Amino acid sequence: EQQRNWDGLPMCKYQGFWCPIFILRPLLSFQRNFKARDSDIVLASVPKSGTTWLKALLFSIVNRNNFPIDQSPLLTTNSHKLVFSLECFCYTKHDNPDLENVPQPRLFSTHLPLQVLANSLINSKCKIVYICRNPLDQFVSERHFLLKKQRDKPYGEMLPLEEAFELFCNGVHAFGPFCDHLLGYWNASLENPDKVLFLKYEDLKRDPLSDVKKIAEFVGLPFSEEEEKAGLVGEISKLCSFDKLRDLEVNKTGVHAGTVKNKFFYRKGDVGDWVNHLTPEMAERMKEVLEAKLTGSGLVLDI
Ligand code: A3P
Asked: Which family does it belong to (predicted)?
């Protein structure tokens, strides 16, 4: 089954999800060749759910004894260069990339749904940190992102907002359907809370300190009393805050993976920006979708 994403990007249905065609080969190589270590940490998300932010937080939490905050590599390097995407970076150029020398614990990211992750990743003790976001905000963010990218390297005509939204509600978008993506990781987090930590963008925004502590505990690196007293949790959240990262020279000017400008990863960073772009009817339509898909799962999204 084939489809085009809202920006014309060709996608095929693979093991239940909409796989951008260019991801298929890297995905197969990843499934075949990835050898997880128990110490690995993999950050998973639907695109535009807060991946860049979580990368910065995770990197800072894990490396907090390696660099003082004011010398953090985040100040000079884009988050995506510090935490590699498995299918969009590691396996794009090589079928069997050398990942032996990635600093320990190795941090990776993925937009792939749980059901297609390499067996080795599922069967090892490595940890998965998942972030989800209110799908209305995520849709708006994705659309802005595609519109900006579109100007540099168009796949085709961008669909009008209403059409793209309807496709989105029907699960037709890169790495979608989003409800299935969310539920895969949500259910895994209920079944095996030591393996999967499920976070929400909105919670992180409301109370970053508590999620930073939660992430640190989950990955086995809880903050000590002295660290807490010294205000390290707050310093990490401040370093990774939207305003701080957006205004760094590297994120204003640099380019990621040869094509995407770093600044495209920092737009507004707000909760509820969808009201400025979508109608109340569209929100109602989304609520129906969520009710049909999520009822009974225990997962409630803040929309
Ligand atoms: P908006 O377009 O709504 O502003 P991803 O990193 O998964 O691609 O998601 C990008 C979204 O996260 C964008 O949302 C971006 O602005 C927002 N974002 C990036 N860095 C952030 C940060 N440090 N804090 C909060 N939001 C951030």
From this structure: Belongs to the sulfotransferase 1 family.
Are 43 and 51 in contact, with CB atoms under 8 Å apart?
yes
What is each CA distance from 193 to 52, 76, 125, 188, 199, in whole angstroms? 23, 34, 12, 7, 12
Residue (of 74, 46, 47, 62) closest to 107 by Cα position: 62
Annotated catalytic residue, options 111, 173, 181, 256:
111
Phi, psi of 288 (to 5 degrees): -65, -45
* CA gap 105, 66 in Å, rounded: 12
Phi, psi (rounded to 5 degrees) for 164: -60, -40
- Residue 199 CA to residue 274 CA, distance in Å, equals 20
Q: What is the pLDDT of residues 3-49, one digit of tens each?
A: 999 999 999 999 999 999 999 999 999 999 999 999 999 999 999 99
The protein residue with its alpha carbon nearest to ligand 1, atom 14, reads: 269
Q: Is 48 in the pocket of ligand 1 (CB under 6 A)?
A: yes
Per-residue pLDDT band for 156 (boundaries 50, 70, 90) equals confident
What single DSSP character describes residue 76? T
Q: Where would I find the beta strands (DSSP E) of the chain?
A: 2-4, 10-14, 17-20, 41-45, 84-85, 107-110, 127-132, 196-200, 255-256, 260-261
> Residue 170: is it exposed, middle or buried by C-beta count within 10 angstroms (0-12/13-18/19+)?
exposed
pTM over 0.95: yes
Is residue 228 scored above 90 in pLDDT? Answer: yes
What's residue 1's pLDDT? 87
Active site residue 111: yes
Cβ within 8 Å of residue 250, ≥6 positions away: 75, 76, 77, 78, 262
Looking at residue 157, what is its pLDDT?
Answer: 85
To the nearest whole percent, how much of the chain has pLDDT over 70? 98
Predicted local distance difference test score (pLDDT) of residue 153: 72
